[in-house]
Amino acid sequence: MELLRKGKVKDVYDDGNALVFKFSDRISVFDKIIPNSIPHKGESLCRTSYYWYNVVSSLNIETDLIELVSDSEMRVKKYRQMDKGYGFLSNYMVPLEFITRYYMAGSLYDRIKSGEIDYHTLGFKNAPEYGDPLPDPFFEVSTKFEKFDRYLETKEALEISGLDLGELYSIREIIFKIDRRINKSVESRGLIHADGKKEFALGMERKPVIIDTFGTLDEDRFWDKEDYENGQVNELSKEMVRQYYRAAGYHEKLMYARDKKEAEPDITPLPENMVKTVSDLYIQMYEKITGLKW
Asked: Residue 261 and residue 270: Cα distance in Å, rounded?
C-alpha cells in the first residue's frame, strides 16, 4: 500500500482500489500534535466511527465506508482531492469542514467574548454564558486544506468548494438529520451532544456522501447530562485536553505568536496522569456514545 498522507490523527493509505485509514494514538489540539501517545485512542475513534457509519446508513444517507478491517483500520471509497472544488465535477472531496453547534462552547464562545461575532445575530438578547443552549443550531463552514482552519462566509465557501447554494443547503439538512439521531441516541445514555464537525464528498451526479470520521471525541463535543442539569459543564471529549493547555497558558502564547506571525512555541507533553485520564476517557466514552461494551 502507498502512504498518501500522515495526518494529525490517522494515516491514509491507497491500496489501489480504496483508501485505508489507520487510526493512530496521536492526539492534537490547536493544529499541534502533542508529543504523547494516548493508549487505545485510535481504536476508540475507529470503532466509534464505524458505529455511526452504520447508524447513518440506516437513515439512507450515503457514506464512504467499505468495511472495517480491524479495530483500528477501515477501508473507504476514494474521491479526488483538490484544494478547490469545481461546479461541474463529481467524485471529489469537498474542501470544507462543516460545523454544527447546539450550545455555546469552544471557539464560538471565544469569538463571542472577543466581539468577533455579535451574539444578537445568534438570537440572544443578553450576552450568553459558556454552556448556554443556542436559540437555533448554528451552522458554519471552515477551510480544510489550509495550514490553519479558517471560518468562511457563504460566498467564499461556495467559491472554494465548487458547491452551489442548493448543494450547501442539502449538506446542511443531511447534517441536521444525522445530528438529530446522534443527539437523541446519546441523550438516552446520559450525554449531551454540544457540537460536531463533518466532511463530505460529492459522489456520482454530485450526490452528497459523508466521509471521514464523525461523532467521536475528536470531532464532536459531549457533556455529562446530569452534571449539566445541575449547572456544571463536564467536558467528556478532547476539549478536556484543550482546556488543560488553556489553563497552562499555552493557548494564549500560541495565539499571540500566530497573530504576530512569530515562531510558534512547541507544545509540551501531557503529564502521565493526564495521559491515563484521557486514555480512560476514550474507552469509557466509546461505551457511553455507542451503548456497546469495549
From this structure: 26
CA distance 62 to 180: 17
**Whole-number Å distance between alpha carbons of 52 and 229:** 26
Quote the CA–CA distance of 239 and 235 in Å, as a whole number.
6
* Cell triple for 15: 491500496
Rounded to two decimals, what is the model's pTM?
0.91
Domain layout of the chain by residue ranges: 2-290
Question: E strands, 175-255, where?
Answer: 191-202, 208-211, 220-224
Q: How far apart are CA 253 and CA 265, in angstroms?
A: 7
Question: What does the DSSP 8-state code read for residue 120?
Answer: G
Does 84 have pLDDT greater than 80?
no
pLDDT in tens, 243-256: 999 999 999 999 99
Q: Which residues pair with 6 in a beta bridge?
A: 11
> Domain 2-290 carries which CATH code?
3.30.470.20
Which cell numbers in the block locate residue 250?
A: 499555552
Residue in the block written with cell 442548493? 166
- For cell 479558517, what's the residue? 150
